[in-house]
TrEMBL record:
This is Autoinducer 2 import system permease protein LsrC. Its main location: membrane. Residues 1-25 are annotated as: Disordered. PANTHER family: ABC TRANSPORTER PERMEASE PROTEIN YPHD-RELATED-RELATED, AUTOINDUCER 2 IMPORT SYSTEM PERMEASE PROTEIN LSRC. CDD domains: TM_PBP1_transp_AraH_like. Part of the ABC transporter complex LsrABCD involved in autoinducer 2 (AI-2) import. Probably responsible for the translocation of the substrate across the membrane. The chain crosses the membrane at residues 37-54, 66-85, 116-141, 184-207, 237-257, 269-286, 293-312, 318-338. The complex is composed of two ATP-binding proteins (LsrA), two transmembrane proteins (LsrC and LsrD) and a solute-binding protein (LsrB). It is a multi-pass membrane protein. The keyword Transmembrane helix applies. It is found in: Cell membrane.
Length: 353
């Protein structure tokens, strides 16, 4: 049978039934929400078991230590999540943290009465400059992010070592008000943890409520299709890397406030923990899905594991083994969920056709 059309119409202009993508989007959202809930339940279970062994684990000081231990990792994980959502990665965050922390210490050595706000701005500024270098090479020069940030990891660390020249800044060299920020609390919550909460809320709101934030997911899902739809891929990726650098710079200032003693090795190797926290938190390593809230939960979980294992008298070796197993499980789950969502979308399109 030959298809017919009414006068004045062409086969191309005939409306064709289409299945809205909202169903698949809602399904993906429900699945990743379930993953984040699973991470939260695992965290609660870990804390409960550790508390049963040693009730002081969640005492007043214990809770404060747990929050402080997770703060810096959460700030770094939020920035890393934004980058990974775009199908890129920033391996230089540990070096940026170390450079920013040492720059903060040098600022207070030169200006002992400098306000804390100036130190925060200086640390974030150092991070922004590093992020601009990464973003320019990745988004403008089109060099793969893995190659660029692996190189800048060593470049920024080399700058830090050259600048420090073996010097160590001690806590006694820092102003009391700045060191007090590292131990101060508000309603029992450490001030440094409030910085992490603020960063998390702002980043989550931006990704969910602003078009440019949602475009990051489109870029991570399919960069070529995003370009065809008019999304400025290069500009968005550049911005994501600058944000990651800025948050790494902020984390460096928080590191200086918490530990006080600073040298060129600050933050060494932290980038691997950050990527692990993001992946365990449900952000797909291949981009396009996940949330900063899940990344923050992953950071808190990994930090709590590090604090709980000594209490449970488990060899520290197993911490690395557990983290590795969680990463492999998270990646495997990402692939399984992606296949399930794709199958569900194909079924919907077939029914709609």
């Amino acid at each position: 049978m030959t298809a017919t059309t009414s006068p004045g119409t062409t086969p191309e202009a005939t409306p064709r039934p289409r299945t809205p993508p909202a169903g698949g989007t809602r399904a993906a959202h429900r699945i990743f929400m379930a993953r984040e809930l699973g991470i939260a339940l695992a965290l609660v279970l870990l804390v409960a078991v550790t508390t049963a062994v040693n009730p002081r684990f969640v005492s007043g000081q214990g809770r404060k230590d747990l929050l402080l231990g997770a703060t810096i990792l959460v700030v770094l994980a939020v920035g890393q999540a934004i980058v990974i959502i775009t199908r890129n990665v920033d391996l230089s965050v540990g070096s940026v943290l170390g450079l920013s922390a040492f720059a903060t210490g040098k600022l207070f050595l030169a200006m002992p009465d400098a306000p804390i706000v100036l130190a925060l701005l200086a640390g974030v500024g150092v991070g922004v400059l590093c992020g601009v270098v990464n973003g320019a090479l990745i988004a403008v020069a089109r060099v793969p992010a893995l190659v660029v940030t692996l190189g800048t990891l060593y470049v920024f660390r080399g700058v830090d070592y050259s600048w420090a020249a073996g010097q160590q800044i001690n806590a006694a060299d820092l102003p009391g008000s700045f060191k007090g920020m590292g131990t101060a609390t508000v309603a029992g919550v450490p001030v440094l943890a409030l910085f992490a909460v603020g960063v998390l809320v702002v980043a989550g709101f931006y990704l969910r409520s602003y078009r440019s934030g949602r475009e990051l997911y489109a870029i991570g899902s399919d960069p070529a299709a995003a370009r065809l739809h008019g999304i400025p891929v290069g500009r968005r990726v550049f911005g994501a890397l600058v944000v990651s650098g800025a948050l790494a710079g902020l984390a460096g200032v928080l590191y200086a406030a918490r530990f006080g003693t600073l040298d060129a090795a600050a933050g060494n190797g932290m980038e691997l923990n950050v990527v692990a926290a993001v992946v365990v938190g449900g952000v797909a390593i291949f981009g396009g899905s996940g949330s900063v809230y899940g990344a923050a939960l992953g950071a808190v979980l990994l930090s709590t594991i590090g604090s709980a294992l000594p209490v449970l008298r488990i060899d520290p070796f197993w911490q690395q083994a557990v983290v590795g197993a969680l990463i492999l499980a998270a990646i495997g789950m990402d692939r399984a969920l992606a296949a399930r969502i794709a199958q569900r979308l194909r079924g919907r399109r077939a029914r709609g056709a």
